[in-house]
Design brief:
The model has no long low-confidence stretch (mean pLDDT 80). Helix content is 21%, strand content 40%. It has a 4-stranded mixed beta sheet with strand order 4-1-8-7, with no helix packed on it. A 3-stranded antiparallel beta sheet has the order 3-2-5, with no helix packed on it. The protein has 2 domains: 35 residues; 112 residues, Immunoglobulin-like. A hairpin with a 3-residue loop joins strand 7 and strand 8. It starts with a helix and ends with a strand. It contains 1 helix and 9 strands, in the order H-E-E-E-E-E-E-E-E-E. It has 151 residues and is α+β, with helices and mostly antiparallel strands. The protein is rod-shaped and about 95 Å long.
Length: 151
């Protein structure tokens, strides 16, 4: 009779230990899901909404990286991508413009008599989309239009 009570008591103690362990594991997982680690992604695109095929040479001064792309009408290209720890709030976002220290050259392949007159440093020419949260993101797009090219 004493042996049966000892085994029953041991089973009861094991159940308590297992419940505590399960509670600890669930609590740890919840805590991890609400951790402070956040990140922010930023991307800049060029979008050709003009009727022309254009060639873009882009030098990003921070990375000393040169990119040359040919954009057909309605094509787009990613020209800059960055990420870092820490999310952003919309009011604290960096500007979408291309820095003046970066070099951009645009040529109209369809009609060499037309020259690009757009301004990459004009914030109003950029469309910005922002997504808030632990993984915040900002997507900036500059659209080439027919009025950007004159003789």
């Amino acid at each position: 009779m004493l042996k049966k009570q000892g085994v029953g008591r041991l089973k009861h103690e094991n159940k308590i230990i297992m419940k505590k362990l399960a509670t600890f594991i669930i609590g740890f997982c919840i805590l991890q899901s609400f951790s402070c680690e956040t990140d922010h992604y930023s991307e800049k695109y060029l979008l050709n909404l003009s009727d022309h095929t254009i060639k873009v040479d882009y030098l990003e001064s921070y990375y000393y990286e040169v990119s040359t792309v040919e954009l057909l009408p309605e094509d787009s290209v990613l020209i800059h991508q960055s990420s870092y720890w820490g999310s952003e709030e919309e009011q604290n976002l960096s500007s979408c413009i291309i820095l003046e220290s970066d070099s951009v050259s645009v040529a109209n392949i369809s009609d060499s008599t037309l020259y690009f007159t757009g301004d990459f440093t004009n914030e109003n020419r950029w469309h910005s989309e922002f997504t808030a949260g632990r993984s915040s993101s900002q997507t900036c797009t500059f659209a080439f239009v027919n009025n950007d090219f004159i003789e």
